[in-house]
Amino acid sequence: MTGSGGILAGLNGRAAALSRVLEAILSEDRDLLGEISLYSLYGGGKWLRPLVYSLAWELLGGEPGDPVMRGASVFEIIHMASLLHDDIVDSSDTRRGRRAAHLQFGVPEAVLAGDYLVAKAARLSLEWESLETFDLITEVIRELSYGELYQLKARRDPDLSRGDYHGIVRRKTAALLSAAAETPAVIRGASAELRQALRSYGLRYGTSFQIADDVLDYSGEAGALGKPVLKDLDEGRITLPLILARDSLPPKKAARLRDLAARCERTEDERAEVLSLVGEGGGIEKARKEAADWAEEAAAALDAFPASGASDFLKRLALLNSSREF
Ligand code: FPP
Ligand code: MG
Which ligand is nearest to the CA of 217? Predict the structure, then answer.
């Protein structure tokens, strides 16, 4: 396998092509909805979903290049739409260190820009001329909606089960990565076995990615990434480090952690107590281990393919992300 320097250089080449294509697509309408879309695009992002799409495409023997990135854009545009709406649902003030679009342009305008982007992605996906891929795209938008709804219902629920947490993660994050990995298999007419391998890769990688992201909320590294520590908890999201700590701590401490987690606000001392209880219950370590296990399983799913540069990239992408080395 290549070292992390190698993978980053390779991904950067693809990111440049993707950036060109996304900018062209989102510049088509020179009006407010186009402006909000470009504002979201220029906010940056890791572009994991389109990268997974383009690498899966290459894994199946397709040529890299701008035409592939047009298909890959479908997944980033859906993701951007979901984040525009999510920041309203979560009342988030910032996204990637900048003012959230609903504060910059207004809530109705940001809602409409999200709708507009969904329509844009659906129309782009028609270029595949396949009902099967249209089915995947519309199904994943449905999954995202349920993921967000279930997350909303679970807000500040200190008893959220591990299974329900995983149900949310599968819908809100893993489903879109899975569709991004699976769609090239449909377009290129891959066997059922290879299609399933790519779908599994996306689901497992997505799960690993979300758990690793949830760990950052507690591990103190979140600040370095432009996201305040305990932001998820402050917005009411109960995530795996807290769940695992809660289920390992002795009853009195677990009850205290549940009580603190259920509150709308916490003092500085209470925030420190949450971090200390989650640490004491081994929540960060155990969740990190779980993220790493999902990443290993994601990489293993690609053993269905012969070794190649693309499979190497995809495996590294999953493994590096679970350890958040980039
Ligand atoms: C971010 O979660 C939220 C999502 C990835 C899914 C959001 C889905 C919807 C709003 C449903 C509607 C979908 C479309 C396509 C319009 P988070 O709040 O945990 O992450 P964050 O910290 O980045 O905000
Ligand atoms: Mg959010």
Answer: 1
Pick from 76, 80, 142, 144 the residue to mutate for probing ligand 1's pocket: most ligand atoms within 8 Å of its CB.
Answer: 144
- Could you tell me if 182 and 195 are in contact, meaning their C-beta atoms sit under 8 angstroms apart? yes
Distance 97 CA to ligand 1 centre (A): 17
Q: What is the CATH number of the domain that holds 90?
A: 1.10.600.10
148 C-beta closer than 6 A to ligand 1 = yes
Tens of pLDDT along 24-58?
Answer: 999 999 999 999 999 999 998 889 999 999 999 99
Residue 231 scores a pLDDT above 70: yes
pLDDT score at 67: 87
Pull the structure tokens for residue 306. Answer: 């012969």
Quick count: other Cβ atoms within 10 Å of Cβ 197? Answer: 23
114 Cβ below 6 A of ligand 1:
yes
Q: Is the CB of 49 under 6 A from ligand 1?
A: no
**Number of domains the chain contains:** 1
Residue 324: per-residue pLDDT: 60
| Helix spans in the chain (H) | 4-26, 32-42, 48-59, 66-89, 101-105, 107-125, 131-153, 162-169, 175-187, 192-219, 231-234, 240-246, 251-262, 268-280, 283-301, 309-322
Identify the domain containing residue 62 by its residue range. 4-322
Considering every ligand atom, which ligand is closest to the CA of 84?
A: 1
